[in-house]
Write a structure and sequence with these properties.
Elements: H1 2-10, H2 17-49, H3 52-55, H4 65-71, H5 73-84, H6 89-106, H7 110-128, H8 135-173, H9 177-193, H10 198-205, H11 209-229, H12 231-243, H13 251-256, H14 262-278, H15 298-309, H16 316-344
Helix pairs in contact: 2-4, 2-5, 5-6, 5-7, 6-7, 6-8, 7-8, 8-9, 8-10, 9-11, 9-14, 11-12, 11-14, 11-16, 14-16
């Protein structure tokens, strides 16, 4: 047993909640930010401002600049996790196909699937790294076979779990507008912050109309809520990263203190029914926009393009409703709820600090 512990220490393999639950999860969020989210933002900027270099496809790939970034989400997450786990070069590079496989098989649960398989593949690769004279063959082969093989086993069930979230959302769309607004807003908002793809879930469900509006409200509550709540810890960098990036950056902190998730979730349960019952906010753009919130302002642009495409006469109340639901109320409500929890001692200083 002593020899095993010494071997693991030499390989820098540490079985701990901090390394896998905090450091690896932080890296996963950063990898997702630098691929899927940045790619989405670039696509949105190109489309809305008609910037040729961002809207034209590159060569014969069929991808735009942003599209290529989005397509690399699996490898991006896997490599980021490898860096967090101190992977040697050959292991790190071998995680690229592992990440691609996990995301491709995992569907809407792709990011979570990559997180699981990348950790295990990385640690297995580290075990054999530099242990043979043909390391350049052994290490990549072991890392890739373990990672892709594991992806074939666990990614599909993770995809099914993400689909179950989607089914719960579809069940909620059959409720009357008040309850539907509460449940859809909360569920889609939670999905946005979890390491699964809320955008993919909304796209697969074709979530538009009032339900789409509630989904936008829930996503905005999480993103804007966390951005404002954590401003004292993260300042302007954190405001931008979460407000127009992703609230998933807070997942490591949620693992450490789940109570920090209460304020934005409560906010979503208020803004959702206000969206459906008071402002009649419908998202009739591309369904994927329902699950994007304020990421690159894709959710708001989706609402606006839905108005334009339907020939709707856009009123001042429409704009007021959009501003209140997407920005003002999430910020105010989350800040108030967070202040109460800070006073109670449920949220302490630096509980919301990001590793940016």
């Amino acid at each position: 047993m002593k020899k095993i512990r010494e071997f693991l220490r030499r390989k820098d393999i540490i079985f701990s909640g901090k390394r896998y639950g905090i450091e690896a999860m932080s890296a996963m969020a950063q990898g997702l930010f630098c691929t899927l989210l940045v790619g989405t933002i670039l696509n949105t900027i190109g489309q809305q401002f008609h910037i040729g270099i961002l809207t034209q496809t590159l060569g014969k790939t069929g991808y735009t600049v942003g599209g290529l970034a989005c397509a690399m989400v699996g490898p991006g997450i896997a490599v980021a996790i490898g860096v967090a786990l101190h992977a040697p070069g050959l292991v790190l590079f071998s995680l690229i196909p592992v990440g691609f496989a996990g995301n491709a098989i995992g569907g809407a649960g792709g990011p979570l699937a990559v997180y699981v398989v990348a950790i295990i593949a990385c640690e297995c690769g580290k075990l054999v790294s530099k242990e043979t004279k043909i390391d350049i063959l052994v290490t990549p082969i072991v890392t890739i076979l373990v990672g892709v093989g594991l992806a074939c086993v666990v990614a599909a069930p993770i995809a099914d779990a993400a689909t179950a979230v989607g089914q719960a959302i579809m069940w909620a769309t059959d409720l009357q507008p008040l309850l539907m607004g509460i449940v859809v807003s909360a569920l889609v908002g939670i999905a946005l912050t979890l390491p699964i793809s809320s955008a993919a879930i909304c796209a697969s469900l074709g979530l538009v109309g009032l339900a789409g509006g509630a989904a936008v409200a829930g996503c905005c509550a999480q993103m804007v809520g966390f951005a404002i709540m954590s401003f004292r810890e993260n300042r302007w960098g954190g405001l931008v990263a979460q407000g127009i990036g992703t609230s998933m950056l807070q997942m490591p902190n949620i693992i450490k203190n789940p109570r920090i998730w209460i304020p934005p979730t409560l906010a979503s349960m208020i803004t959702g029914p206000l969206a459906t019952c008071v402002f009649k906010l419908e998202m009739n753009g591309a369904p994927v926009s329902s699950g994007m919130g304020t990421c690159g302002f894709v959710g708001q642009i989706g609402v606006y393009t839905g108005w334009v495409d339907s020939g709707k006469a856009i009123t001042a109340m429409d704009w007021i409703g959009l501003g209140l639901i997407c920005f003002v109320l999430p910020a105010v409500l989350s800040w108030v709820f967070c202040a109460i929890l800070r006073k109670w001692g449920w949220i302490k200083e630096n509980d919301l600090k990001l590793a940016l």
